[in-house]
Automatic annotation (TrEMBL):
Example of a GO cellular component annotation carried by this entry: Golgi apparatus
Highest classification ranks of the organism: Eukaryota, Viridiplantae, Streptophyta, Embryophyta, Tracheophyta
UniProt cross-references to PANTHER family, sorted A to Z: PMR5_CAS1P GDSL_SGNH-LIKE ACYL-ESTERASE FAMILY PROTEIN, PROTEIN TRICHOME BIREFRINGENCE-LIKE 9-RELATED
Protein name as catalogued: Protein trichome birefringence-like 43 isoform X1
Predominant localisation class: membrane
Species of the source: Arachis duranensis
Length: 360
């Protein structure tokens, strides 16, 4: 067989493999997202010490907020048919030299962004870094590698604008997309704030709304899963119309679950994540698939551009022990079963992100 023919075959194989990975979340035929949590009492876990990450938000710093148990730090995600590659922060920074990663989403995206900046910083502790915030954009830079890891707070992805009637959530408008252009890697997230209604809506002006609008129709409210799906379709169209896959890789974080209802995992008391110190055993979550994740997969499957789904939902559903609970701010002042302690579960999301970036 001639060299041209061999090259053509290789290119076809690579292309088929790339598409398989991007649409199925697999590496070498292994599903990274199906497995179980195993206790790892070696010195490998946690992946870093919180004392080495002075920039971690207080709400994620469960240890310094008084959390007494430590088991949640010692669990490692084990895919059923393979092993996750060991995270190498120096390797990641070297491969990403001259590039920028932009996380776009809500405080769960912030959770993952802070985890990654901490994992990278502790891998190269002597390397200079800068951390700046300008409005809703936070930028963590490693100047010696010319790498930027950025976070843009955008809870709904679609636009929320001020009009004469009040704040309007526009399900078919995405002017914010112009701020995403020019980055080498985009990783999106949205769901958490779609559930908030009435008084439960945040008082933060930029993510509070009074009406929902689609086209010429304005609504006081609508089914939130329906609204979320419509917004995702607007986002998907923007990606299909504006992203050049030869220049930019696109990821979606998946839906981060909460653990506010113990009946979802067969427990009547305590009724939430409070006091949980161990993950659920096995590979399947008793409460079944998350409806928002099902909606997300449906939208992604209809897209023309490849988006890699970090399918973190089920593996995170098993981690009822990983939330701050009463240790989000210290002093038992509130209950947080939505965000995650750091070190903790988002570190595994970034192990999967690392595998997806460089093992495909």
């Amino acid at each position: 067989m001639g060299s041209f023919a061999i090259s053509s075959v290789v290119m076809v194989v690579v292309l088929v493999f790339y598409v398989f990975v991007e649409t199925n979340g697999s590496v070498g035929g292994c599903d990274l997202f199906h497995g179980s949590w195993v206790l790892d009492e070696s010195n490998s876990y946690p992946l870093y010490e919180i004392s080495k990450c002075p920039f971690i938000e207080k709400e994620f710093d469960c240890i310094n907020n008084g959390r007494p148990d430590q088991f949640y730090l010692k669990y490692r995600w084990q895919p059923t048919a393979c092993n996750l590659p060991r995270f190498n922060g120096y390797d990641m920074l070297t491969r990403l030299r001259g590039k920028s990663i932009l996380f776009v989403g809500d405080s769960l995206s912030l959770n993952q962004w802070q985890s990654l900046t901490c994992m990278l910083h502790t891998a190269v502790p002597q390397a200079e870094y800068t951390s700046l915030r300008n409005g809703d954009l936070s930028t963590f830079t490693f100047p010696s590698f010319d790498v930027k890891v950025k976070f843009s707070r955008n809870a709904f992805l679609v636009d929320t604008v001020s009009e004469s009637i009040g704040r309007v959530l526009k399900l078919d408008s995405m002017e914010a997309g112009k701020f995403w252009e020019g980055n080498d890697i985009l990783i999106f997230d949205s769901w958490h704030w779609w559930l908030h209604t009435g008084r439960k809506q945040p008082y933060v002006y930029r993510i509070r709304w009074d009406f929902i609008q689609e086209g010429n129709n304005t609504y006081r409210d609508m089914d939130r899963l329906v609204a979320y799906t419509k917004a995702l379709r607007t986002w998907a169209k923007w990606i299909d119309d504006n992203v050049d896959p030869t220049k930019t890789r696109v990821f979606f974080q998946g839906v981060s679950p909460d653990h506010a209802d113990g009946s979802q995992w067969g427990q009547s008391y305590p009724k939430s994540c409070e006091g949980q110190s161990r993950p659920l055993s096995g590979s399947n979550y008793p409460g079944g698939p998350h409806p928002a994740e099902t909606a997300l997969k449906g939208v992604l499957s209809s897209m023309t551009k490849a988006v890699y789904l970090l399918d973190i939902t089920e593996l995170s559903q098993l981690r009822k022990d990983g939330h701050p609970s009463v240790y989000g701010h210290g002093g038992h002042r509130d209950m947080d079963c939505s965000h995650w302690c750091l070190p903790g579960v988002p570190d595994t999301w970034n192990l999967l992100f690392y595998a997806a970036l460089f093992q495909t």
